[in-house]
Amino acid sequence: MHTSPPPFSPHAQRARPPFDRVPDGTSTLDAAPPTKRACAPPYELVVRRMLPELLSIARVLLGSPTEAVEVARAAFSGLGPTHALVRDEPRLCAHLRRTAVRECLARRRARRTAPAAPVAALLPSFLPDGRHRQPARPWPMPTDADRRSECLRASIDELPPRHAEVLLLCDLLSFDTTEVAAVLGSDARTIRCTLHRAHQALRSLLESRPGVAVGGA
């Protein structure tokens, strides 16, 4: 049975260019003002364009502005004005995004101290005819609006690592399943299945937290 994404996910509200394309299919170097194109080297323009995005990605995945700066710095390390990708901006931007995401995921895995519960224990059970044993209910929401972000992040952190990573990338960063598959070394079909189970498991974790009401009631 289909489980809808969390209602507090910005996935349907915010579009982000895919890894291998810029917003309108043109280069941001071409979109820059002529005076800036003439005086600023391509590497500098890419840094200006990508730094805010890399910081935003890292803040979402790690929740720490300090670590976000470290991740952005790590993504740019090894690059320079003479790097082979500097003249191919779409590929360079894709490389920087993937590098930043992988660095963030490595940090998330390294700081996990307790083993996650098996995802099977968090999934709903079904009758032989395929119906839910328990009637499907609206998404649980913290009754205190100020705690929603904190509650959501804490629940996501309790998911198994791969499920948490897929949910964060798809729902909070608006990456499509093909992009996520490329980052995680998987395929889009597996990512879609993992995301579906992550939604189901997240619902169970939210329902078990104090101060959370079904449907935000």
List key phrases describing it:
217 residues, mainly alpha, two-stranded antiparallel sheet, 9 helices, 53% helix, elongated
Short précis:
The chain is mainly alpha-helical and 217 residues long.
- In spatial order, strands of the major sheet run 1-2
- Total strands: the figure is 2
| Biggest β-sheet strands, sense, barrel | 2 strands, antiparallel
Content-based structural category: mainly alpha
Order of helices and strands: HHHHHEHHHHE
Shape from CA axes?
elongated
What is the mean pLDDT? 75
Given as residue ranges, the uncertain stretches (5+ residues, pLDDT < 50) are: 10-40
Helical stretch tally: 9
Percent helix, as a range, is 40-55%
- Fraction in beta strands: under 5%
Q: What distance separates the N and C termini?
A: 24 Å
What value does the Rg take, in angstroms?
A: 20 Å
Q: Could you characterize what this model shows?
A:
The model is unreliable at about 10-40 (pLDDT under 50). Strands 1-2 form a two-stranded antiparallel ribbon. The radius of gyration is 20 Å and the shape is elongated. Helices cover about 55% and strands about 5% of the residues. It has 9 helices and 2 strands, in the order αααααβααααβ.
Write the layout of secondary structure elements.
Layout (H helix, E strand, L loop, with lengths): L27 H4 L2 H6 L2 H21 L2 H12 L12 H23 L28 E3 L5 H10 L3 H12 L4 H8 L3 H20 L4 E3 L3
Antiparallel strand pairs: 1-2
Helix pairs in contact: 3-4, 3-5, 4-5, 7-9, 8-9
